[in-house]
What does this fold into?
Amino acid sequence: MKTLTLYNFNTSYSFGIKEPVAEKDATVAQRLTRMKETFDKEGTRKTVESIIIVHEHNHPHILLLQMSNSYFKLPGGKLKPGENEVDGLIRKLTKKLSPIGTAPDDSPWEIGELVSTWWRPSFEQHTFYPYIPPHISKPKECKKLYVVTLPEKCTFAVPQNLKLIAVPLFELYNNQQRYGSVISSIPQLISKYRYVYLSLDEK
It folds into this structure.
């Protein structure tokens, strides 16, 4: 069983804000149109997302970006054509969560194992499957999840229109209605790890 060292979310890290992230599409219809156009040019959309693990009160928590009262997502995003998955994930995390001016080579992200691959069968559905459904010959998106841990100290800077929250595993478990199939599966995906909990005030 692999051991991961987790640091306390509230005492180990500092937080700032930066300019809001502009939405590329004003409506869902516009987003679907853009995704279809990109699919025609590039094929299956490839995304990478992070399961960033910290702790509060000696219990594993997962970092999520909250975009509204009811919409949550894992930090990450779309790869560029031909981009390496780990490099792309570091790039997206640095862009979304690090202070302005931070270079990817100076980022704190410790990319671990690939623990899950998910497939979106069509643009009209937000549903992802941990396999390609038999009747789908051209899945529209492939999403890969990597475990990410953090060093003892780092600084987050989150766009003003987003909120970075630490959610306990017991809140995610079997809670597909609130978090969706991918995020609610995380407790099972990382159950193979053993955790060591550290806090700055314990040193």
User: Anything to note?
Assistant: The domain at 3-202 is CATH 3.90.79.10 (Nucleoside Triphosphate Pyrophosphohydrolase).
